[in-house]
Amino acid sequence: MRIPLVRRLVRREGEAMFDLVAGFCHAQILMGLVDLGVFARLERGPVPLAALAAETSVPEVRMAVLVRAGAALGLLSERFGRVRLTARGAALAAVPGLPGMIAHHRILYRDLSDPAAFFRDEVETELAGFWPYVFGAGAASDPGQAAAYSRLMADSQLLVAEDTLALANLSNARHLMDVGGGTGAFLAAVAARHPALRLTLFDLPAVAPEAATRLGPRAEIRSGSFRDDPLPCGADTISLVRVLYDHDDTTVRALLAAAHAALPAGGRLIVSEPMSGSRAGDAYFALYCMAMRTGRVRRAREIGALMREAGFQTDGKGRSRRPFVTSVVTGVRKS
Ligand SMILES: C[S@@+](CC[C@H](N)C(=O)[O-])C[C@H]1O[C@@H](n2cnc3c(N)ncnc32)[C@H](O)[C@@H]1O
């Protein structure tokens, strides 16, 4: 700090370090704003601080602290006695599924509350129970659990679909099968862009029927488990969107082999999910997957190697517009 030429750099480094130190507080400010409905309230327009405090049953002096904290994080501003959303705050409130995702992070944070024990694998994680479908079709038969996860997945699919479709061109495809397609949010986005493309969705029996409600006659719905059943044939393109990272290498190898068997020569496989090699992949999704205890975040080149092992031709290069949304690796079945 005493050397003028590097003072600015040192201050920036110091701020970045302090942000790391204070990260938990930042996350809790965000969750507080979601839990208290502040984003939802301010989406309807600016509000005086006292009214916001009264509506949320928070004492005004404490709400003033929360609002200032939200302002410090670039989410809120207070002008002319009214609290309002900044552009970032408004965008955050409007991203489909994001407030729900922030709220469900309390489960992840409980799992991470003793990080040394977490990394030593001494924690019975709650997230492993939140996503029971990963363990197989039997565990997914609880409709309440299935509905909770399906909603979170479908809401967050909008951006994933946008980036996947920007990176994996489907204009030459005739028939796409989305394996692990959930309740059909990805295929709904595909259908809107490619009206002539034939669509099939494959998912567990507890999940797939809901896709029929969303997609209607636009898609054929096939129920089954890719752990136990062969994948239906007929599609010239298969997509696996946010599926591989839920599973260990043995299951992924079997699934990629099944996709290879289901495709004709020249058929195309599209893998889209957050990958290692980015801050989001390594400092968020990797921990999330570890807490789920079933899968892991992989580098694009690892996914590429697994695809090649299954018989696909791929350069294994992950492409991404926004690594925190998704990355894409594609391959072609060799003849
Ligand atoms: C993380 S979700 C992704 C859903 C959707 N592709 C998306 O991106 O929104 C993983 C999906 O894989 C499905 N799945 C998990 N195990 C499966 C299995 N053994 N057979 C078929 N689908 C399975 C789940 O039901 C779930 O819909």
Tell me the CATH topology of the largest domain: Rossmann fold
Number of helices: 16
Separation, N- and C-terminal Cα atoms: 63 Å
> Helical proportion?
40-55%
SS content category? alpha/beta
DSSP strand tally: 11
Please write the CATH class name of the largest domain.
Answer: Alpha Beta
Q: Overall mean pLDDT score?
A: 93
Quaternary organization: single chain
Question: Major β-sheet, in short?
Answer: 8 strands, mixed
- Give the full name of the CATH homologous superfamily of the largest domain: Vaccinia Virus protein VP39
Pfam families: Methyltransf_2
Organism: Roseisalinus antarcticus
GO biological process, one term: methylation
Enzyme class: transferase
Can you describe what's shown?
The strands form 2 sheets. Strands 4, 5, 6, 7, 8, 9, 10 and 11 form an 8-stranded mixed beta sheet that branches. This protein has 16 helices and 11 strands. The chain folds into 2 domains: 4-94, Arc Repressor Mutant, subunit A (Orthogonal Bundle); 129-333, Rossmann fold, CATH 3.40.50.150. By secondary structure, it is an alpha/beta fold. Helix 4 (49-56) packs across helix 5 and helix 11 crosses helix 12 (185-193). 50% of the residues lie in helices and 15% in strands. The model has no long low-confidence stretch (mean pLDDT 93). Strand 2 and strand 3 form a beta hairpin. The structure holds S-adenosylmethionine (SAM).
